[in-house]
Specification:
Elements: E1 2-5, E2 19-22, H1 25-35, E3 41-46, H2 50-61, E4 65-71, E5 78-82, E6 91-95, H3 111-115, E7 121-124, H4 125-128, H5 132-147, E8 152-155, H6 165-175, E9 181-183, H7 186-192, H8 206-221, E10 225-235, E11 238-249, E12 252-257, E13 261-264, H9 271-285, H10 290-304, H11 316-325
Parallel strand pairs: 1-5, 3-4, 7-8, 8-9, 9-10
Antiparallel strand pairs: 1-2, 5-6, 10-11, 11-12, 11-13
Helix pairs in contact: 1-9, 9-10, 10-11
């Protein structure tokens, strides 16, 4: 999709020009993983015009393989970003209703070719929000990945501006049948998946609520890992992040919340995608070491906030240097 940003922290209603660049959840993850040394492929539909060509050029500039991008329709998804400053938060306006991807069809893809030699498949909830056709293709892709034994990661990424919880709930519950790793919050598990707190639950913190709900979600959907972040917003350009993971080992829950890292923000968009990409890289390196993966994701996300654009473009050397400087090197096993 195309992002149109206001320059110089101006508001949308006062600006007379926009800065254009390309991004999108899964595309951002693919770009970031390419910069970490992985071979990535992007699956989507783009219009056969200059806007579609621009998106393809963007992906090619980061060495993402676009052989599974089909062309058709006339428009590309767009979102407008009003960059926040100080006490004024950022705002996003979506314009995606009739974009090319909403005209996507299952018969446009050879799923056996795509997944028979794949090592990972990543999907986000924003994609699921784009209409019935997109949901059918996404669900089919998740099923095919599952059939070929490809780990499937799913970032909940629920956006109330795109659909309601009531609309999203059955779709999320269906896709969860084919997912191994999720990026999710307490809200996602409790409200969207309807995993309840215990009747006698008396905790008040998010960590306590996650501890009560996540094990039940993991058991119900046979999940390997749940990852996520806790963010504290001091101002629009001054935040802190901590990362967490939950897993079951030998019938017992293992979980951790990392120490937070406080940082200044140049561009917040794509921070969650950077976290996902770092976690995926960590698990591809050592699937049984979530402590390393969560710290890799956290470092990648913090670094992403310091550069313009939707995607992280940091190398493993950059990320590992940052991890060492922030006390994370000792978790490598």
């Amino acid at each position: 999709m195309m992002r149109l940003s206001t320059p110089d922290y101006s508001t949308i209603d006062q600006t007379h020009s926009f800065l254009a660049n390309y991004g999108g959840g899964e595309a951002n993850v693919a770009v970031a993983l390419e910069h970490m040394g992985h071979r990535t492929f992007f699956m989507s539909k783009l219009p056969p015009n200059q806007l579609g060509d621009g998106a393809i050029t963007h992906l090619h500039s980061h060495n993402v393989d676009t052989r599974y991008v089909v062309r058709g329709s006339t428009t590309i998804g767009i979102y407008f970003l009003e960059t926040g400053f100080g006490g004024r938060p950022s705002k996003v306006i979506y314009n995606r209703k009739h974009s090319a991807i909403t005209r996507i069809n299952e018969n446009e893809f050879n799923f056996e070719e795509i997944f028979k030699d794949a090592t990972w498949f990543h999907l986000s909830g924003i994609t699921l929000a784009l209409g019935d056709r997109v949901r059918k293709v996404a669900l089919r892709a998740a099923k095919e990945a599952h059939k070929y034994g490809v780990p499937v990661s799913f970032d909940f990424n629920y956006r109330s501006k795109l659909w309601t919880v009531e609309e999203a709930r059955p779709v999320y519950k269906e896709i969860m049948k084919y997912v191994d790793i999720v990026f999710a919050s307490f809200y996602d598990a409790n409200t969207i998946l309807e995993i309840p707190l215990d009747d006698d639950f008396s905790g008040t913190t998010l960590a306590e609520k996650r501890l009560n709900v996540f094990p039940k979600a993991m058991k119900k959907y046979n999940l390997t890992y749940i990852f996520g972040t806790d963010r504290v917003v001091y101002t629009a350009t001054d935040n802190s992040l901590a990362g967490y993971y939950y897993t079951m080992k030998n019938g017992k829950l293992e979980c951790e919340l990392t120490d937070p890292i406080r940082f200044n923000i140049y561009d917040r968009i794509g921070g969650g995608d950077a976290f996902a990409s770092g976690v995926i890289h960590g698990l591809l390196k050592d699937y049984k070491n979530p402590a390393y993966a969560v710290r890799y994701g956290l470092a990648t996300s913090v670094l992403k906030h310091t550069i313009y654009g939707d995607a992280s473009t940091f190398s493993c050397e950059d990320i590992e240097t940052f991890m060492a400087a922030n006390g994370s090197a000792e978790v490598v096993r």
